Amino acid sequence: MRIVSADDAVSLLRDGDTLMIGGSGGGHAVPEALLEAVERRFQQQGSPRRLTALHPVGLGDRGQRGASRLAHPGLLKRVVCGTLVDSPALAQLALANEIEAWTLPQGVLSQLTREMAAGRPGLISHVGLHTFVDPRLGGGRQSERCQEELVSLIEIDGREWLHYKPFHVDVAFLRGTTADEDGNITMEQEAIFGDMLSMAQATKRCGGLVIVQVKRLARRGTLPAKNVKIPAMLVDLVVVDPQQAVTYQSPNDPAFTGEFRIPLNDFPLLPLDERKIVARRCAMELMPGAVCNVGSGICTGICLVSAEEDVLDAIVLTNEQGLIGGAPAAGLDAGAARNYSALVDQPYQFDFYDGGGIDIAFLSAAEIDAGGSVNISRFANKLIGVGGFINISQNAKKMVFGGTFTAGGLRVACAGGQLHIEQEGAHRKFVAALQQISYSGPYACQQGQTVLFVTERAVFRVVDGALELTEIAPGIDLERDVLQQMGFRPRIAAELKTMDARLFLPQPMGLHQAMAAKTRARHPRLAQLAPQAPL
Question: What percent of the chain is predicted at pLDDT more than 90?
């Protein structure tokens, strides 16, 4: 192992290399100093050129940092990632057909690194069937330049599967907190573990270089062996960046790194607006002990509502980056969490998700059609990608989609337990046809999944393969505020209910008492044991 500068490290990149990059979203364990050095070298020397960038999670601050540093014409040939929403400059290159771009499920790319490490012939998974990732619907391509088949449809014992091809990796950019003199890497001040170990193993298996960015150095033999996440035998070069931040937005948050927990009353309170109404109505679906996933976007408000209602400890909120328990973060910090009880490597979290471990998942929806299919990946000339959306939505026992009824300038007001639309959004979300299929309603119906759509003014369920309106907010006109704002006419329940008035009042709703009244058996065999006093 050698300690070098970021510029010396990136000088080893060659034209045409495949570069695997660790980290997640808004700076969570992202090797930013190395990405910055690549950009600097290209601007000064015009090289390296025609790289393939491979990263399971979107990387960036939705500005110039992260993967956006690679968005210079000629630098990249191709990007294969979970999402491009964090790096809009790359998304623009893809939309302009200047690079090849694929967005594949985050969990698939994460698990694929393990398959590559073991030398297996790619990943076989059901995740992605009947979505735009399915080769029958595009194979995950997001630019016209894409010609290669990265995903193929196969059949085993009469059942359809998707085969995701492996990649040959030349260089990996990874990140940890501390490196000792031998190159052992620990991650004690990181918000996530991600795929660092699997990525290092996959790269070494390909004969590639593993370059790790850290914050500090330690003497040989002083790091606790059980804390080492990337062993020295997998590390070629170490780059030290003393200014390394926990995330782009939160340079030093010890709650994100798990050093302590914050009191529940230290969580911020959401203002009473359309986003809080949606989060509150979603939270009413929670059950004691339910294992949940909370996606980025509007549904992260469920975490703050749960803290405000004192039910956070009665449920298990998780996110795909490997955090279990506590409250997943919102905004640019999404992917981190506070007050979590455990942190596992990302591929193992997706194993749990793909196996049906989630009781209830809460995700956003950008477009919804009459059959309950959803698009979040590409719409309104925006290229987003899917992140962990497909892994989560296809496999959760119950799927709750949350979002405002319309988008683009929507303003609402709450008064006396009623909702009033002050300004309607410019864009419809309930549309006649989707631009891309990120979630297949008919496929979910075949699998017997329970599906709910929650907005600030209406709630829908999928019944016999069709969207059915079941609840409407008090103060809302059904025809004007709901049906006329949709691109299709849904079924209307015979007993159309009024949404709970507590959703539209400023004080807490009393979810703690409601949760205590609910019961849920962890396993049917446990019922034969005698009751146990609370610990």
Answer: 93
CB 151 within 8 A of CB 134: yes
Which residue in this structure is represented by tokens 């059950």? 287
Mean pLDDT of all residues in the chain?
Answer: 96
| pTM, entire model | 0.95
Q: Between β-strands 185-186 and 228-230, what pairing exists: parallel, antiparallel or unpaired?
A: antiparallel
Q: How far apart are CA 345 and CA 343, in angstroms?
A: 7
The DSSP call for residue 11 is T
Among 100, 320, 424, 456, the one annotated catalytic: 320
Residue pLDDT, tens place only, 112-141: 999 999 999 999 999 999 999 999 999 999
**Residue 419 backbone zone (phi > 0: left; psi -120 to 50: alpha; other: beta):** beta
- Cβ neighbors of 365 (< 8 A, separation 6 or more) are 374, 375, 376, 401, 402, 403, 429, 453
The 3-state DSSP class for residue 160 equals: strand
Rounded mean pLDDT, 28-57: 98
For tokens 């190395």, the residue is 34
What is the residue type of 366? A
| Per-residue model confidence as pLDDT tens digits over 215-273 | 999 999 999 999 999 999 999 999 999 999 999 999 999 999 999 999 988 888 999 99
Active-site residue flag, 181: no
Assess whether pLDDT exceeds 70 at residue 534: no
Q: Please give the Cα distance from 27 to 22 (Å, whole number).
A: 10
Residue 436: φ, ψ to 5°: -140, 155
- Give the count of beta carbons closer than 10 Å to the beta carbon of residue 237: 21
Amino acid at 285: E
- 387 Ramachandran zone, left/alpha/beta (phi>0; psi -120 to 50): left
254-264: buried (b, 16+ CB within 10 Å) or exposed (e) per residue? Answer: ebbbbeeeeeb
Query: Token digits for 139?
Result: 């194979």
